[in-house]
Amino acid sequence: MSLDVNGLSVDCAVPADDAAPEGASSFGLLAAALSACTAMSVRSFLQRWDLGGDDEVEVDVFFQAGPPRVLHRRVGVRADLGVGIREQLAAVVDNTPVTVLLRDALVIVTRLDVGPDARPGD
């Protein structure tokens, strides 16, 4: 299957069985959309409040087949943020446009790692 996104062609494989598809899958594209939207929202939040660290935002998303179907999202921000700002950031992450669109259809589990030592996969 081929998709057209703003004039760019994206090939998407829909597997007929349990075999891993070659190329992007529909859930892989959803995970990519969630990751990109989350990263942009977190960077915008950090810039808006002049908190620094917007260049050190990492978002990892992976899909776990279900039932239930689950998207696991880890957001790493290497800025030193206080508790109140962390709570506001968590609310921003939980209300990104793609999160709002997906949360009624999929379970989204989010882990927020904040601080100078936040590293991918920890």
UniProtKB/TrEMBL annotation:
InterPro entries: KH_dom-like_a/b (IPR015946), OsmC/Ohrsf (IPR036102). Its EC number is 1.11.1.-. Coiled coil: none annotated. One of its GO terms (molecular function) is peroxidase activity. Keywords: Oxidoreductase, Peroxidase. This is OsmC family protein. The lineage of its organism: Bacteria, Bacillati, Actinomycetota, Actinomycetes, Pseudonocardiales.
